[in-house]
């Protein structure tokens, strides 16, 4: 009985630690790649509603010339509680981009920056 309980605790610990929570930088990379590859289901899952609509509206105009690997690289990132900022580069843009991110229901999502809000970089 004791072995069975230990086995159950071990299995529970392993299954709880193997969740699909991504870091803020991994989420930023997924959103950038989803935008380029027109994977709107992933794009919608990892953005709040307003940025999703904005990204989809410009997606057709911008991504038609893009192809291949994005070469996503984090330039700088910062986290403060449930908010993060990720500045990154891709092979498809000359200037670095910055995502503001919030944590909702335990998952990082790209959100919109507020009026007159500036990134910490």
Automatic annotation (TrEMBL):
It comes from the Bacteria. The lineage of its organism: Bacteria, Pseudomonadati, Bacteroidota, Flavobacteriia, Flavobacteriales. It comes from Christiangramia antarctica. This is DUF4878 domain-containing protein. PROSITE patterns: PROKAR_LIPOPROTEIN.
């Amino acid at each position: 009985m004791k072995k069975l309980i230990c086995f159950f605790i071990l299995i529970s610990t392993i299954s709880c630690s193997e969740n699909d929570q991504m870091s803020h930088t991994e989420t930023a990379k997924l959103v950038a790649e989803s935008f380029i590859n027109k994977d709107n289901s992933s794009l919608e899952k990892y953005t709040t509603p307003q940025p999703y609509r904005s990204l989809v509206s410009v997606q057709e105009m911008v991504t038609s010339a893009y192809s291949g690997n994005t070469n996503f690289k984090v330039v700088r990132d910062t986290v403060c509680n449930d908010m993060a900022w990720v500045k990154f580069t891709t092979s498809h843009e000359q200037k670095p981009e910055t995502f503001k991110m919030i944590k909702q229901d335990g998952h990082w999502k790209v959100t919109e920056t507020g009026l007159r809000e500036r990134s910490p970089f």
